[in-house]
Amino acid sequence: MTLLFVVNPISGGVDKEPFLKEAKAICTNYGIDFQIFKTSGSEDDVKLKAILKDYNPDRVVSVGGDGTTLFTSIGLLNTDIPMGIVPLGSANGMAVELEVAQKPIEAFKDILMSNIIGDLDVLCVNDTHYCIHIGDVGINAAIVNGYEKDENRGMATYAKYFIEALSNVEPFKMKIECNTSMHELQGVMLGICNARKYGTGVPLNLDGNPMDGVFELVILEKINANILISAGLSSFDETFLDSQNQTVLSTSEAKISFNEPRLLQLDGEVIGEFESIHVKVLKGAVKLISTKRNGYL
């Protein structure tokens, strides 16, 4: 077996070296050949493509948070090389969705031992951007935008931008074309969901399944701020959605337009402002190393 570790050294402010030291020792003990690719922020996509082509590993280990998982998935598009996830980021939402072991070394052992390979969907947005977890337009995109620009991190900083966004929230209109129908709707947030919950634990899409060949558009007409605040911004259950007026559209492709440019975030990264968004699912685009814990299989 040959392994390629794709490591984001700075994701979540978590030191990856203790995990890598232990993982290297396991590989050495069992005669597993490996290479380590660390992202630097400079042409990482080009460099990853090159090493995948030259080294052609049997398996890829994504070490980081949701952003690292997305980056690795994009690199593996149009290949048959399976990927496993080691959760070591600030938000490990996709790892939680897929029931990945939360102890990094246990997740790594699962990647080595499992013969269960599933098909993970990827969402393609405007032909040039990708999403495997959750994206949105509206209130949460504004929160993420403020959080990204702040040099401080943690829940206190998130709460600051959460409260600021709530105070400025205004519904906006959108037109959604999908499943041969046109929907004219209004809301404070449009969720683009390949999964069910944000990394913070906030549920958004009870119908989500990142391995079923479709995605959901969730339009929230309002946000119940009292429930969010009383929940402490960290612990939520699915009753949260009971108090929200929402519309859910399940589809494999959609065209969305707004009356003015709106801020879009995908998997925790602000992409920019768009008047129109085209989303389509790339069914089973990434081979995922998983276990029987994964309820989507």
Automatic annotation (TrEMBL):
The keyword Transferase applies. SUPFAM superfamilies: NAD kinase/diacylglycerol kinase-like. Coiled coil: none annotated. It comes from the Bacteria. The keyword Nucleotide-binding applies. InterPro entries: ATP-NAD_kinase_N (IPR017438), Diacylglycerol_kinase_cat_dom (IPR001206), Lipid_Phosphate_FormReg (IPR050187), NAD/diacylglycerol_kinase_sf (IPR016064), YegS/DAGK_C (IPR045540). One of its GO terms (molecular function) is kinase activity. Keywords: ATP-binding, Kinase, Nucleotide-binding, Transferase. Residues 1-129 form the DAGKc domain. This is Diacylglycerolo kinase, catalytic subunit. It comes from Formosa agariphila (strain DSM 15362 / KCTC 12365 / LMG 23005 / KMM 3901 / M-2Alg 35-1). The lineage of its organism: Bacteria, Pseudomonadati, Bacteroidota, Flavobacteriia, Flavobacteriales.
